[in-house]
Amino acid sequence: MTPERTARADAVRNSERILSATRDVFADLGPDAPLEEVARRAGVGIRTLYRHFLQGRPAPGGRQPQRHGGPPRGHRARRG
What we know:
Layout: H1 9-29, H2 35-42, H3 46-54
Helix pairs in contact: 1-2, 1-3
């Protein structure tokens, strides 16, 4: 048996901001709006967006956030 977890106040605020930004972005840009824009308008990082809402689920349209600055985490370069 596990005790119920209470969300931290900042996590609740982030969730509310993300939901509000999502409604605004999709209303403005349609269903193909980039998730990075949702995160930007919510004032959170893209990882926070994924942690709150997309963990373990594919992104809308099967898209992944754009990564900048190198290969994805856990990537191992092929040798020889």
